[in-house]
Amino acid sequence: MLTDAKQRLETLTDEQKRRLASRISRGHRQQSGGQEIVRQGGERSTYPLSFAQQRIWFLNQIGPLSAAFNIGRPIRLVGAFDLDALARSLNEIVRRHESLRTTFHAIDGVPVQRVEPFVERPIDFSDASHLQDETRIAEMVREISSEYQRPWDIEKGPLLRTKLWKLGDNDHVLLVAVHHIVSDGWSWGLLEQELTALYRAFRAGQPPPLPELPIQY
Predict the structure, then answer these.
(1) Cα separation of 212 and 177, whole Å?
(2) Spatial distance between the Cα atoms of 175 and 142, rounded to a whole number of angstroms
(3) Which helix (H) or strand (E) is 134 found in, with range?
């Protein structure tokens, strides 16, 4: 029977296959009670939190502003460097991903998240190239440690921070830190992939290579 079904599918045109796939999808949603996820038009003022975000929000309310939910690490950049291309890449990532420009508030005791308008931001830059080798590394490590200890304000944001250190003409260190309420380990890998693709394109004078996202978190 499976062989017969496969042979019949191979005789269908592309349009017939699309119609069949659409009917199967509708039937599955009707049976499961689920709904198709689509991008909604218009803008809402606030959105509910996921269960994981609710837990982090609750812990954030218990004590003072904390750095406990930091995700990120320094990235060494060795070779010819384009600061403008890097800044454009980071801003494009923030523009693409609404979660990276989200703030969190309580309305009548209920936590909600609000997507803020995109605003282009410069990279916080520190030039340590004039220092001696040992002093330069020690100063950078001290500043990175200080950045990791900076508390987050999830009501004001931003919940993504970047800072660049120049160690030499062809030697830089980029720190990217993000609050765990808007990111996780899997998302960090995606951020690195998008940053690499965008930087290569912008450095070559090309337009953004990534398609617009059909849905947002």
Answers:
(1) 24
(2) 13
(3) helix 133-149
